[in-house]
Amino acid sequence: MYQQLMAATVFVQPLDLVKNRMQLSGEGGKARQYKNTFHAITTILRNEGIIGIYTGLSAGLLRQATYTTTRLGIYSMLFEKFSSTDGTPPNFLTKAVLGMSAGGTAAFVGTPAEISLIRMTADGRLPAAERRGYTSVFNALSRIIRDEGVLTLWRGCGPTIIRAMVVNAAQLASYSQAKQGLFSTGYFEEGILLHFCASMISGLVTTAASMPVDIAKTRIQSMKIIDGKPEYKGAIDVLSKTIKSEGILSLWKGFTPYYARLGPHTVLTFIFLEQMNKYYKQYVMGVTSSSGGI
Fold first, then answer.
1. 291 pLDDT more than 60
2. Is the pLDDT reported for residue 288 higher than 60?
3. How far apart (Å, rounded) are the C-alpha atoms in residues 46 and 60?
4. What angle do CA 220, 224, 229 make, to 5 degrees?
5. Where are the Solcar repeats (predicted)?
6. What single DSSP character describes residue 187?
7. Alpha helices in the chain (DSSP H)
């Protein structure tokens, strides 16, 4: 499973880069660098080449290795702990709380890789004299510690944790509802197709719910300290300044690449959890069920 997620990271890394660039485009009321997703992709490819669109891949892989493994590991452990002795899964509200807890904890663990990723993917949009020029995620981490202090690795940790909790809660709630609704139509039966369709719907809802927090996180982690003063005081300051100078719809800037990235990730996550729960019930608990546990 983790090999699949790493492979998926290689596939979606360009989308992550485009999403981050679009979220930073037009910051502070400046002219937008990119008109839309297609314009962003073509501009980056023209100016930086195919290698440029994979900038930050090492940070993306480290984030996957830290955040995703921690999140799924904690969630699976808590899911098993709160399941009844006969294999009945916890109720919906409990699962939502478990997901938020796992996501928040994993976000704290993954923030150093996240801030490295944000900075590396944003670097190409800056003038040459202002670029940080990190050569890899480990170069980024070591230079951040050396130049800005170790606590900088957790800059934007608050909105990162909030985003993770929103993502996990939204994913669980929307997936459960979508799966139940699709199953009730009579056109679906328990299986991979049902899980896939419910996951894509869940990804869409999760994208819409989490993007305002995500753009706040991206801008805080990308900002520089000018004359000893940070560009933003916190997430609320980012959101208020963004709405004031760029309009409220700018909070969903980069929606297409974000969903194109989150959709497949959601599919992999829930198919894995569904299969894990299925085999756990079948081979460990000795029970079978025609409906999914999530």
1. no
2. no
3. 23
4. 95
5. 1-81, 90-181, 190-279
6. S
7. 2-24, 37-52, 57-63, 69-81, 92-122, 137-148, 157-184, 192-222, 235-246, 255-279
Is residue 242 in a domain? yes
pLDDT category at 293 given cuts 50, 70, 90 is low
CA distance 191 to 287: 17
The residue behind tokens 């290689």 is: 10
Question: Is the residue at 292 inside a domain?
Answer: no
Our measurement of the distance from residue 226's CA atom to the centroid of its chain's CA atoms, rounded to an integer in Å, reads 28
Number of domains in the chain: 1
Q: Phi and psi of 86, rounded to 5°?
A: -90, 5
HEC letters along 125-153: HCCHHHCCCCCCHHHHHHHHHHHHCHHHH
Judge contact between 225 and 219, C-beta under 8 A.
Answer: no
Q: How far is CA 254 from CA 39, 189, 243, 249, 251, in A?
A: 12, 34, 15, 11, 9
Nearest to 114 by CA among 152, 167, 146: 152
Cα separation of 261 and 266, whole Å? 9
Question: What CATH number is attached to the domain comprising 90?
Answer: 1.50.40.10
Q: What is the pLDDT of residue 114?
A: 94
Classify 229 as helix, strand or coil. Answer: strand
Q: What is the pLDDT of residues 250-283, one digit of tens each?
A: 999 989 999 988 887 777 777 776 776 677 667 6
What single letter denotes the amino acid at residue 6? M
Cβ atoms 192, 271 nearer than 8 A: yes
Using one digit for the tens of pLDDT, what is the confidence trace for 70-98? 987 898 888 888 888 776 778 878 888 88
91 domain residue, yes or no: yes
Dig out the tokens for 208 from the structure.
Answer: 């819409």
Give a yes or no: residue 88 inside a domain.
yes
